[in-house]
Amino acid sequence: MRVFICYKKRLLRQEEGVQVVQDNTKAEILHYILAQHEEYEPWMDDAALMAGMRWETEIYRQILASDVLLVLIGPGTSRSEWVRRELALATALGLAIVPLGFELSDEEMVAEVKALNLADRQYVMTRNIALARGDALILELAGALDHGARATAERQGRRRPRRTKARDDQRAAGFELPGGVALHLASGDIARVRGIDALVNPENDYMQMARFFESHTVSSLLRRRGATIKAGLYVDTIQQELDWQLRERGRPVQAGEAFATSAGGPGSDLAKVNRARAILHVAAVQAVDAESKVIPYKHPHQIQAAVRSVMAVLSDINAAEGVFSPPATPQRAEQERLAALGDGRLRSVILPLFGTGQGGAETSEVIRPIIEGLVDTTELVPDVREIYISCYAQEDLDIVAREVAVRLA
């Protein structure tokens, strides 16, 4: 369920007769909680849209693609012109609106919804917008969100998505590449994989990862799960490390180039839960600011170049015994610890289907150059003994399994 979070960035409240302005941190917490549940795909504007992208155009696109609009109503929300615009657009598009109130009395909430022309909507009042109360918040919201999504589908006459998520199975199918390297097809959600040393992130050519809030992208997922939380704030470890790796490079980088970062260090979810050690960021998307869009690289030679770059970076990392992060960082210390034990080298990697999804490339066309790139390079990196290909949809899994079987027969 795609949930558009509508909110006022700064809240207004009265304290002892004085108007106080404060940042609306609840919106970020709400997004984080929803994103932890795989049945929801939340989106919110954090005022950091890609340079050159028109704000109104992106908001329109996101609302149009959403199943429900969740409007976060706190002190002074009704005074926001942008909140009013988003609500008007959602209403015009037939999108269901779910009001969620916080830090308001019942009387104040009634006044806010009236001012926002939402008096006819049933609202939810909560005290559970906190990281430690996520499950309780979901219990409060689930019914209203589900009802709203069904109402939207009925109004808009939407069809069910044609792509069906495959069940989560890290080894849904197995093959063998030259040199005895195992090739596995990992179906379902890439966030569910465990014990794969290196995860490949198809990134734009400016090496600017997607925002935490764009949970429908691999880049956002890795950035969020690779971050650490200190004193309630995110430490954006992976993007910071990626910037360090590119400190002497101009941007944009060349198509297919790859750069390595850690998986966020020992404190990140990627390291603790997924047991990942590295992210290989490949320039697989061209950002075109003047046209407010990105263009995925999906020609066979570009895909093969991306695969070769991944394997070359793996070779370089293993030549350095797995030590490559910035000095004096927790992730570097962990890499040096493993190297001292003789366990620093990376043995496994998972690749995406470059250019599919929003890129629009056919899976059958993409998998062929991926396999050719692997056949040409796996023997050059003898330390790597397992390679995975991520197949989110069942349709992708079926096609990839067939194409790989034919090529490696």
From TrEMBL:
Residue intervals passing through the bilayer: none
InterPro entries in alphabetical order: Macro_dom (IPR002589), Macro_dom-like (IPR043472), TIR_dom (IPR000157), Toll_tir_struct_dom_sf (IPR035897)
Region Disordered, annotated ranges: 150-171
Superkingdom assignment: Bacteria
Gene3D superfamilies registered for this protein in UniProt: Leucine Aminopeptidase, subunit E, domain 1, Toll/interleukin-1 receptor homology (TIR) domain
Record domain Macro: where: 170-408
Biological process, per Gene Ontology: signal transduction
Protein name: O-acetyl-ADP-ribose deacetylase (Regulator of RNase III)
Organism: Nonomuraea thailandensis
Taxonomic lineage: Bacteria, Bacillati, Actinomycetota, Actinomycetes, Streptosporangiales
